[in-house]
Every structure is written in structure tokens, then in C-alpha cells.
């Protein structure tokens, strides 16, 4: 599956699970061999408000290279820096994190955009299914854990890209709708793309 380049900007409205908004800007990496993604999410979830700002560097295949994340809530301000070698080995704030071995993507709990990373990186053919474990960053405290998940490309009757998504640790599965740039258009119960 080939994808077109992402737009310069995209935005999602978060709904049902939380109320909020995410705005993202895409640009080619200064080296010209990948992408830099800047984003910000603000939300109210279970009576708690938070803001998560992030900058993610991706290689040409959309595999994560680095992520710098900051978060604010009533509990205070936090930051974390995440680095991967591209072979599934990770460091969080300079500390080797073996519990993330084998992960190739970062997945921010606060973000609908990060569901584009495994889809673009895997480039599945119709009917293909793949495991896509990710370094999962919690919105409230920026803690990082492993999240095992799967994606399977299916097409609707109009030929639109849909992916059966499952995250067994949360007992969650749904059908995600994507656009031709590999960005989520509809994440049932979580977010919908507004631009």
C-alpha cells in the first residue's frame, strides 16, 4: 500500500472517551530523509484536564527515531525523551528500556495521529494482518509501557482503507478509517478528523 505525503497540518476532535482537540504539523526532516511531526492535544477525561505537546522524528518508512514529549496537568509539568535505534531497542530519558524491545512505533494515548505510524510503516496489502507492538505513552503522567496491538487491512465496498485494530490489554478492538495519506479519519469512540 503506497500513501501520498501527509498534509502540512491535520486536526482531530476527541469525543466520547474524552473531550478535546489535537492539532498536528508535518514537515520533512531537515536531513531530508524522514519526517518531523509536531503536535499538541488538550483534553478533559474523567474529570481531569491535560495538555500533551510532542515532536516525533520518523525515518522515511515512518518508523520512530525520537520523541520529545511534554505534558501539563493539575499535578504539574513533565517531560520525557524517547530514543530508538530503529531495530526495536529503546531508551527513555537515557535509560535502556528492555520491556520495549521489539517495538517499532510510538503510540501516544493522547493522539489519534500516532495510529498512522504502524499503518504507514507496515504498508499492508489487502487482507494482511500484522502485530505492531508500540511504546505507549500515557497522557496523564507520560509513563511509557509496552502495548501489543494488531492491524489488518480491509476495504469497504467503496474501496476505502479500513483497518481492524486490536489492543488486547485494553480489551479494545474497532475498525479505523484512514485517508490516502495514511492518517486516521475516524477512530470510533476516540476521535474524528476535522481537517
From TrEMBL:
It comes from the Bacteria. InterPro entries: Glycolipid-bd_prot_put. It holds the Pfam family Glycolipid_bind. This is Glycolipid-binding domain-containing protein. The lineage of its organism: Bacteria, Bacillati, Actinomycetota, Actinomycetes, Kitasatosporales.
Amino acid at each position: 500500500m503506497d500513501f501520498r505525503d501527509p498534509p502540512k497540518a491535520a486536526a482531530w476532535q476527541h469525543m466520547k472517551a474524552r473531550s478535546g482537540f489535537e492539532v498536528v504539523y508535518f514537515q520533512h526532516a531537515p536531513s531530508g530523509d524522514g519526517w518531523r511531526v509536531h503536535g499538541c492535544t488538550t483534553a478533559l477525561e474523567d474529570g481531569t484536564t491535560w495538555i500533551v505537546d510532542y515532536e516525533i522524528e520518523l525515518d522515511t518508512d515512518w518508523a520512530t527515531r525520537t520523541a520529545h514529549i511534554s505534558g501539563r496537568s493539575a499535578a504539574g509539568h513533565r517531560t520525557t525523551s524517547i530514543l530508538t535505534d530503529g531495530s526495536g531497542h529503546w531508551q527513555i530519558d537515557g535509560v535502556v528500556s528492555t520491556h520495549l524491545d521489539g517495538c517499532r512505533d510510538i503510540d501516544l494515548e493522547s493522539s489519534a495521529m500516532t495510529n498512522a505510524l504502524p499503518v504507514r510503516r507496515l504498508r499492508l496489502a489487502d487482507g494482511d494482518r500484522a502485530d505492531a507492538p508500540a511504546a505507549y505513552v500515557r497522557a496523564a503522567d507520560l509513563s511509557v509501557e509496552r502495548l501489543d496491538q494488531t492491524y489488518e487491512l480491509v476495504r469497504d465496498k467503496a474501496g476505502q482503507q479500513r483497518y481492524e485494530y486490536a489492543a488486547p490489554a485494553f480489551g479494545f478492538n474497532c475498525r479505523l478509517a484512514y485517508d490516502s495519506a495514511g492518517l486516521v479519519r475516524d477512530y470510533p469512540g476516540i476521535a474524528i478528523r476535522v481537517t
